[in-house]
């Protein structure tokens, strides 16, 4: 069974993530540790090949399965939507890794995007060992994002507004650009000086062409219909400090 997922976004080539799991049978039956470098793959325009390295830092051999999927955001909360794709080739798709050994996985794009950034995810699944009576095996899944930009001038273009929907208010972001962006540390201040809490989303990413919605936690009365709020946030494209208007739900 899948015990937990872990993906940390850092600069490609400089990132390192170690994720541990334990095989339990009342007491510890065995322990393993895997690391993957990089944890985010950002290709250069026109680049079609790259690789990642999976290292078994544990004391017993482990097996992994590596698969690629197209990645999109079709829901307003930014949930990861994965669909099967034949646009990314991986070699090898399955590997056994000895203790303290590494496996290099080669990635090949069958074609590069033309106008809009292509986004994929590699899933690295640990293959569970054979079942043993009284032993619970906790296995791990890693999800590695891949960004393949087009060869033309590319940028994110995220526009914000606020929506009132019944008794709720949402911060809405629409990315009209042809590159993804990452939105972090969102802070909203109402015109009367109130600091408003914004619920964190499923992911900080907003992909090209996607729309994201964050619910605002209201502890007092609703702001006026025509109110504006100050939005402060950090993105990969730069800092945000702007006024956003509250409108009726579209």
Protein model, in words:
The chain is mainly beta and 250 residues long. The protein has two domains: 2-148, Sandwich (Immunoglobulin-like), CATH 2.60.40; 158-248, Immunoglobulins (Immunoglobulin-like, Sandwich), CATH 2.60.40. It contains no helices and 21 strands. It has strands at 2-5, 17-25, 27-37, 41-42, 49-56, 62-72, 81-84, 88-91, 94-97, 102-109, 118-127, 136-137, 139-148, 158-165, 168-175, 181-189, 195-198, 205-206, 211-217, 228-235, 238-248. Strands 1, 4, 6, 7, 9, 11 and 13 form a seven-stranded mixed beta sheet that branches. A hairpin with a 2-residue loop joins strand 14 and strand 15 (168-175). The protein is globular. Residues 1-31 have low confidence and may be disordered.
Question: Can you give me a brief rundown of this structure?
Answer:
It is built from no helices and 21 strands.
């Amino acid at each position: 069974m899948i015990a937990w997922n872990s993906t940390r976004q850092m600069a490609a080539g400089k990132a390192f993530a170690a994720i541990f799991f334990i095989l339990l049978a009342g007491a510890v039956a065995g322990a393993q540790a895997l690391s993957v470098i990089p944890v985010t793959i950002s290709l250069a325009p026109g680049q079609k090949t790259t690789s990642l390295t999976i290292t078994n830092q544990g004391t017993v051999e482990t097996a992994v399965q590596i698969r690629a999927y197209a990645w999109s955001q079709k829901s307003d909360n930014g949930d990861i939507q994965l669909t099967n794709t034949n646009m990314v080739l991986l070699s090898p798709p399955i590997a056994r890794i000895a203790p303290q050994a590494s496996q290099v996985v080669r990635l090949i794009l069958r074609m590069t995007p033309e106008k809009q950034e292509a986004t994929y995810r590699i899933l690295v699944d640990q293959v569970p060992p054979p079942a043993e009576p009284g032993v619970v095996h906790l296995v791990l899944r890693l999800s590695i994002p891949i960004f393949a930009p087009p060869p033309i001038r590319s940028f994110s273009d995220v526009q914000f507004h606020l929506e009132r929907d019944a008794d709720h208010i949402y911060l809405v972001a629409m990315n009209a650009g042809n590159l993804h962006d990452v939105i972090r540390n969102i802070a909203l201040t109402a015109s009367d000086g109130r600091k408003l809490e914004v619920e964190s989303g499923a992911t900080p990413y907003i992909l090209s062409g996607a729309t994201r919605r964050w619910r605002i936690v209201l502890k007092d009365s609703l702001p006026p219909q025509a109110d504006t709020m100050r939005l402060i946030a950090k993105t990969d494209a730069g800092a945000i400090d702007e006024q956003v208007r509250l409108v009726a739900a579209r």
